[in-house]
Amino acid sequence: MTAWIVAADKRVASVVELARSLGGQVIAVTVGDVTVGGVDRVVNVPVADGVPVEAAAPGVAAVVTAGPGDVVLAANRPAERVLAGALAARLGAPVLTDVVSLSQGAAEVSVFGGVSRESVSFAGPVVAVVDGGPAAGGEAPSAETADAQAHDAAVTSTERQDVGEVDLVAAKRIVAAGRGFKSEEDLALARDLCGALGAELACSRPLAEGVNWLPRDRYVGVSGQKVSPDLYVAVGISGQVQHTMGMNGSTVVVAVNSDGNAPIFRDADYGIVGDLYQVLPAIVAAAK
Ligand SMILES: Cc1cc2nc3c(=O)[nH]c(=O)nc-3n(C[C@H](O)[C@H](O)[C@H](O)COP(=O)(O)OP(=O)(O)OC[C@H]3O[C@@H](n4cnc5c(N)ncnc54)[C@H](O)[C@@H]3O)c2cc1C
To answer: Which end of the chain is less enclosed by CB atoms within 10 A, N or C?
Structure first.
């Protein structure tokens, strides 16, 4: 079997690792100016300046000739999702999202926002959208170039959104703030702790998609970022499964919560039951 990786971005280390675990040949189909290491073959689909990578879908589909048992993997990012969908339509293949595990002919996917898991099996090719992870390292084979295709799409205007540019996936230490914070100004306490620990600031979803105190790329969880730092400090976060699914790859988890029965303590290596307004300044003072 062959595992095909469709990559419009170099941040596909987790995808490469998953493809390798399947045991067959791994071919990366890169779109535009992207390098991917750790694979057996690279086929590049060129994209001219000003053409969105999504427009290369027919070219990508022409390169990927998946057969029974083959897996097509794409990182869970907007451009790759478009390419994955177009490929699935072309191949007549099912699309799997929220993939927890994948092997030849079978997968487990997370459903209902992470509350449950479903086992699925497939005989023909399947397209799976999975977490990309950081940039793929390893030696990059020299790329073969696919036949250029004419694209009748062009970017006519761009509008910059005011989002942060934090790379939580690569962060070694994270302080995550939840609804236990009473106001946006109070996040200064979390920022102080970040400063003391050399950590990045993250949050639960309500702070990014509710009160909008932090940009959306800072929230952790099943529908946000999946992180795996050495240290994850969850402050004022209750620990619903939709949040913990994004941080359960952390090495050490510390939870600060005023409710001793908060579910987050089940996922924590160290727990502090207390008011964050007292606990955080004390930790910061101790760290200094
Ligand atoms: C389909 C779906 C997808 C979702 N995806 C995500 C996701 O990706 N990420 C995510 O985070 N959520 C996600 N959610 C939302 C999730 O279910 C929870 O609602 C959310 O995680 C709760 O955020 P929270 O823990 O900050 O808030 P709450 O659940 O309100 O918890 C606040 C906590 O703060 C504590 N607290 C209050 N005051 C203090 C204080 N002074 N000191 C210390 N502790 C205090 C409380 O005891 C409580 O435990 C999703 C939900 C659905 C339905």
So the answer is: C
Q: Looking at the structure, do residues 191 and 270 belong to the same domain, yes or no?
A: yes
pLDDT, tens digit, for every residue of 139-160? 888 999 998 777 778 889 888 7
C-beta of 205 in contact with ligand 1 (< 6 A) = yes
248 lines ligand 1 (CB under 6 A): no
The total of other beta-carbon atoms located within 10 Å of residue 285's CB is 10
pLDDT above 80 (res 114): no
Model pLDDT for residues 176-226, shown as the tens digit of each residue = 999 999 999 999 999 999 999 999 999 999 999 999 999 988 999 988 898
Q: Is the CB of 113 under 6 A from ligand 1?
A: yes
On whether both 139 and 186 belong to a single domain, the answer is no
Asked if the model's pLDDT at residue 268 lies above 70, the reply is yes
Q: Whose CA is nearest to atom 8 of ligand 1?
A: 221
Whose alpha carbon is nearest atom 49 of ligand 1?
238
10 and 139 both lie in a single domain: yes
Cα(196) to centroid(ligand 1), Å: 24
Query: Mean pLDDT over all residues of the chain?
Result: 93
Residue 280 token pair: 């955080």
d(CA 91, CA 73): 13
For residue 26, give its domain range: 2-145
Residue ID of nearest Cα to ligand 1 atom 26 = 178
Q: Are residues 14 and 94 in the same domain?
A: yes
Ligand 1 atom at shortest distance from the alpha carbon of 237: 25
Question: Residue 202: phi, psi to the nearest 5?
Answer: -130, -175
Q: Report residue 221: phi and psi, to 5°.
A: 150, -170
